[in-house]
Amino acid sequence: MVSSKNRPMILGHRGASYGRIDNSLDAFLNVKPMGGDGAELDVRATSDGVLAVVHDPVVKDFGAIAEHTFDRLFTATQGNLIRLEEALEVLAGQVVDIEIKSDPKEIGWVPSELTSRLLARFLNDYHGSATIFVTSFSERALEVFSGLAPEVALGLLGTIGSDLTSRCHTAISLGANYVLPHHSGVDPGGVSEAHELGLGVVTWTVDSADRILELAEFGVDGIITNRIDLALSVLGAKI
Length: 239
Description:
Order of helices and strands: EHHEEEEHEHEHEHEHEHEHEH
Strand order of the largest sheet: 1-2-7-8-9-10-11-12
CATH topology: TIM Barrel
Largest sheet: 8 strands, parallel, barrel
Helix content: 25-40%
């Protein structure tokens, strides 16, 4: 059984996004009232160097995030685009997983070095109360970021089907603090191995009550979910 005293932290996937626009102020504002411990969010660099909180590489029927200024993108999204600093302001006092989006196969791809450098500069000057860790699927993104902001905790994401043991060893080589596998690849042995290596395990994106409970029983340290309410009803509200 999982007690409310040792349950994993619950992070809202792109905020409390169930029934709301993801990565929006509304989604982030509702994390704490729902009882979540914090949020996962995505950052991309705009053409004028703004860290925009957005998952997809393009705005539909408009263009790539990397190829337009924040103001133009803000207008194109009818105001549904926010800056990183806005998200962190409403997530004050909470845990925030900032994912650097960087995939060379994407339209308008921005080399990971740029986004990582912008984010490192931003966080080196950040004096807010959020507890932040920075994650990415890109090893290069994390290498560049950690070289510039070595005090910020890191997490290496794993794709669906990736080997957790392999990702753990890569995470260690990067100096990461967390490994973030897709929940389908998580089992008790993998969690134990990660913990033996000194890594926390935060898994994504889990919206099934049975799987949430199972993962908690495996001993994961955090669960990223679209259903904060469901997770807390299964696991108990207190951490």
